[in-house]
Amino acid sequence: MTAIPEGVAPLVFLTGASSGIGQALALAYARQGWRLALVARRVESVQIWVEQAGIAAERVRIYAADVSDRQSIIAAAESCLNTWGVPEIVVACAGISHGIDTAERADLDVFEDLLQTNLLGLAATFHPFLAPMRVRQSGTLVGVASVAGIRGLPGHGGYCASKAGVISYCESLRMELAPHKVRVVTLLPGFIETPMTRGNPYPMPFLMPVDKFAEQALRAIAAGRAYRVIPWPMAWVVRLLRWAPAVLLDRVMGRRQRKPRKTSS
Fold this sequence. Notes:
This protein is of the alpha/beta class. It is built from 9 helices and 9 strands. It has one domain: Rossmann fold (3-Layer(aba) Sandwich). α1 packs across α7, α3 (70-84) runs parallel beside α4 and α4 packs parallel to α5 (157-177).
């Protein structure tokens, strides 16, 4: 990678900074001395968190944007480019999770929201940085997927489809950008202690504190790992899921309690 000018802290551009994995990653980078370009829908809550975390104001810029609104996230990225230049790392972390029932008309709209936020929002986040990173011949794009993207889960089809799309999209992008020395890292979290998993009504094996996830994620990103499942025991589950025959998967997972629907009471 191109060397960062002496005395200038490296820059990370990160979506989903208002809570969960995004906020934990932001704090981990802040503790390593990075400058933070943080994107969130709830700007005021992020500003309060930055103050409470003791992060120096001159090291942070907060951009109001919704990744499901393509022009909104592109405008935030362009503002960052104009203010601070090209980041060393871009982390597309913003995401939503809801159960769906395809028999319910309202859930088709929920499905669309899942794809718009989790998959197309990720591509829109990366879009403004591709050309300048290619010119610079360095940079890292990080897509936060999920182990739920490996195989389908009952009642979770929209989320699984969106995260499977992230995995395939990032793999395609990685091969496209390799000649330009731009890395693409795909992170696959298992069950992480965040507001998103708090209401899950089913067992969550290997449930991991979000700060521990952030530590391991930063190491994987720094190493330029193409693909990393966190925590590591979940990587073995992923291997089993990949190769499990459909008849066995149906028998085991078919009895699994479903993710609550957004539109359910």
